[in-house]
């Protein structure tokens, strides 16, 4: 997915890393001729690249970024009474990650080309990626009638 640069920092070896609005990091090396980015060398050059779009493969892989904190959890939804908005394609705002946590039954989760079945204890974990809601990625759920689930919202603290 296309993401936008919000700032830059150096890694442990001094290489420049772009911070993206999805909260992933991406190296922006100046290694001509493969990577011709002389602008990384100056403060002014880097500042001019704030807002630049980069392809983030970590988002495509549903990779949970480090350093997020949960700030809101929806009420528990019961399958047959799931709000209509969750049953059709929708997305979270820029920079907002979600986790679908299933407590009972099963919920089919459809996001991009991915379709999987979430169950209690399997899926919904940030580690396995299956219940991960990626910022701005269209998705919807198809809960079984007896499913009980909630959605958590995560972003960096502060
Ligand atoms: Zn990303």
Give a description of the structure:
With 158 residues, this protein is mainly beta. It has two domains: 2-60, no CATH class; 69-155, Jelly Rolls (Sandwich), CATH 2.60.120.10. It is 9% helix and 38% strand. The chain is built from three helices and twelve strands; from the N terminus they run E-E-E-H-E-H-E-E-H-E-E-E-E-E-E. It has helices at residues 43-48, 57-60, 84-87, and strands spanning 2-10, 16-20, 25-27, 53-55, 69-73, 77-78, 97-104, 107-111, 114-118, 132-133, 139-143, 148-155. The strands form three sheets. Strands 5, 6, 7, 10 and 12 form a five-stranded antiparallel beta sheet that branches. Strands 3-2-1-4 form a four-stranded antiparallel beta sheet, with no helix packed on it. A hairpin with a 4-residue loop joins strand 2 and strand 3. The protein is elongated. The model is unreliable at 123-129 (pLDDT under 50).
CATH architecture of the largest domain: Sandwich
Question: CATH class of the largest domain, please?
Answer: Mainly Beta
Strand content: 35-45%
Q: Low-confidence runs (pLDDT<50, min 5 residues)?
A: 123-129
* Bound ligand species: zinc ion
Give the SSE order as H and E letters.
Answer: EEEHEHEEHEEEEEE
Assembly state of the chains shown: single chain
> Can you say what the CATH homologous superfamily of the largest domain is?
Jelly Rolls
Shape verdict: elongated
Number of alpha- plus pi-helical segments: 3
CATH T-level topology of the largest domain? Jelly Rolls
What's the end-to-end separation, in Å? Answer: 25 Å
Largest sheet: 5 strands, antiparallel
What integer is the average pLDDT? 92
As a whole number of angstroms, the C-alpha radius of gyration is 18 Å
Number of strands: 12
Given helix and strand content, the structural type is mainly beta
Total domain modules: 2
């Amino acid at each position: 997915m296309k993401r936008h640069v919000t700032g830059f920092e150096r890694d442990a070896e001094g290489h420049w890393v772009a911070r993206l609005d999805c909260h992933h990091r991406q190296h922006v090396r100046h290694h001509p001729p493969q990577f011709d980015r002389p602008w990384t060398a100056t403060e002014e050059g880097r500042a001019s690249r704030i807002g630049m779009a980069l392809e983030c493969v970590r988002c495509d892989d549903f990779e949970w970024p480090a350093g997020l904190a949960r700030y809101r959890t929806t009420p528990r939804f019961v399958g047959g009474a799931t709000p209509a908005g969750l049953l059709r394609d929708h997305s979270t705002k820029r920079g907002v990650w979600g986790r679908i946590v299933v407590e009972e039954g099963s919920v089919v989760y459809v996001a991009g080309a991915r379709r999987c079945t979430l169950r209690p204890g399997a899926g919904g974990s940030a580690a396995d990626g299956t219940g991960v809601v990626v910022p701005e990625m269209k998705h919807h759920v198809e809960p079984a009638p007896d499913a009980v689930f909630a959605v958590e919202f995560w972003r960096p603290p502060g």
